[in-house]
Amino acid sequence: MKAKLAVSALLIGQGYSNFLPALPHDLNKTTWAFWDYQQSSLAVLPGQFNRSAFDAPWDGNSSDIEVKAVYESLNSTQFVAYDNKFFDIIGSAAAVEHIQALAHQSHEAACYIPDLHKLFFVEWGPPGGNNGTHPWQYMLDVNTNTLSKVQTDPPTINAHGCVYFQGSMYIITDGTDGETGYLAKVDPITLKRETLLNNYYGQPFAGFNDLDIDSDGNFYLTDSKSGWARDIVPYTPPTNPSTYFVNATTMRPKVIQTTTGNCNGVAVSESGSIRTVYLPNTGVSEFKPVSKKNPYGQREIWAYDFSAPAPVLTNPRLLNNPISYFYDGIRVSRNGWIFAGAGDGVDVIDPVTGLTLGTIRVGGGDNLAVTVAFGEHEIWIVGRGGVWHVSNVKETLARTW
Q1: How many Cβ atoms sit within 10 Å of the Cβ of residue 47?
Q2: Neighbours of 208 (CB within 10 A)
Q3: Average pLDDT value for residue range 97-104
Q4: pLDDT band at residue 147 under the 50/70/90 scheme
Q5: What is the 3-state secondary structure (H, E, C) of the chain?
Q6: Could you read off the pLDDT of 214-266 as tens digits, one per residue?
Q7: CA–CA dist 239, 231 (Å, integer)
Q8: Residue 280: how many CB atoms within 10 A of its CB?
Q9: What is the pLDDT of residue 2?
Q10: Is residue 77 within 8 Å of 361, Cβ to Cβ?
Q11: Distance between CA atoms of residues 321 and 344, nearest Å
Q12: pLDDT score at 4
């Protein structure tokens, strides 16, 4: 055993020249790693190896001592690149810091308010709150790293998603006992809440999971079975999980996508007159009668063209299946890169090829990245274990609307 540890330490010191390719000269090898399939030793691994679809590559098993040492090294990094594009997006000055250590349960709805320098987010579901029910949310002052609990007026119960748009927070909820899920507008200063939508022609929503807003102010809402599955709401979902388009002028809702899996995150990208909607399917998570992750369930991102002004999704295409875990909250940056919470970290995905370009890690262990919020050159990651801040990102991330 001592001999194996000595060899492992030697390999770490050598930087795995037989396995991991060289990094650009301005990147710190203790912070960065590059998994490049052009490196033949990574394309054809020696010995026996295995991992679950839910484990990150560096959490895999290997009978080869050198591969084990490579995994050790990868597991100590903040950024793992799979493509040269990732270096250009993130840049050499970026760093990840765990700024708020919270319980290892779901934290969601990251929503950055640039004028106030505050980050809104929520603790969602059991075991927290009152049997999983939360009438309060978090507000983080990012200048002082001061975390406070806040309550809207009237209280917003079981908030699940949030987007900041033109001076207001738009929040969706799962609902609770006696109250169906709804879309609300909240003033970030006074925290006054106005409910905008709570039904589809008299039919209650199952429980909203996430939302996005396009540059015209239209809403894209994912209605999932997660609240019912975690016993946050007592009623059985009235339909299969669905995505709704809501016209900002008329507030008229329309179903634009359904699934027998589960709806989760949603992101809208715009390039000139071209609008694309990204939807991850998380049917991989099964809850009743037994809570489990089914590796044969859906865990992919689909891309759709949005045929404005008609609210119709066309040209569906499987964009990406995650390297590990499944995609939860997703957001699109100013230049169209897709950032998706994927367990061990946030994956950055090319919107054209669908390739995963790299992962921004949240430290491994029980930490899980769920969703993100963008500043100009910074990212806040919210998930199980709290909040992480990614500073000094090279590209401009925040959208123009």
Answers
A1: 12
A2: 29
A3: 97
A4: very high
A5: CHHHHHHHHHHHHHCCCCCCCCCCCCCCCCCEEECCCCCHHHHCCCCCEECCCCCCHHHCEECCHHHHHHHHHHCCCCEEECCHHHHHHHCCCCEEEEEEECCCCCEEEEEEECCCCEEEEEECCCCCCECCECCCEEEEECCCCEEEEECCECCCCCEEEEEEECCEEEEEECEECCEECCEEEECCCCCEEEEEECCECCECCCCEEEEEECCCCCEEEEECCHHHHCCCCCCCCCCCCEEEEECCCCCCEEEEEECCCCECCCEEEEECCEEEEEEEECCCEECCCCCEECCCCCCCEEEEEECCCCCCEEEEEEEECCCCCCCCCEEECCCCCEEEEEECEEEEECCCCCCEEEEEECCCCCCEEEEEEECCCCEEEEEECEEEEEECCCCCCCCCC
A6: 999 999 999 999 999 999 999 899 999 999 999 999 999 999 999 999 999 99
A7: 17
A8: 31
A9: 37
A10: yes
A11: 15
A12: 37
Q: Which tokens go with 97?
A: 């810091």
Q: CB burial class (10 A; 0-12, 13-18, 19+) of residue 119?
A: buried
Cis peptide bond prior to 309, omega within 30° of 0:
yes
Average pLDDT score over residue span 320-341: 97
Which domains are present in the chain? 2-77 (no CATH), 84-391 (2.120.10.30)
Question: CA distances (Å), 58 to each of 28, 76, 95, 307, 324, in order?
Answer: 19, 10, 20, 41, 10
Residue among 369, 366, 361, 375 nearest 387 (CA): 369
Cβ neighbour number for residue 96 with a 10 Å cutoff: 21
What does the pLDDT look like over 280-305, one tens digit per residue?
A: 999 999 888 888 899 999 999 999 99
Question: With contact defined as beta carbons under 8 Å apart, do 269 and 306 qualify?
Answer: no
pTM of the model: 0.95
Confidence of residue 17 (pLDDT cuts 50, 70, 90): low
Give me the half-sphere count of Cα atoms (radius 13 Å) on the Cβ side of residue 107: 27
Tokens 């006074």 appear where?
A: 190
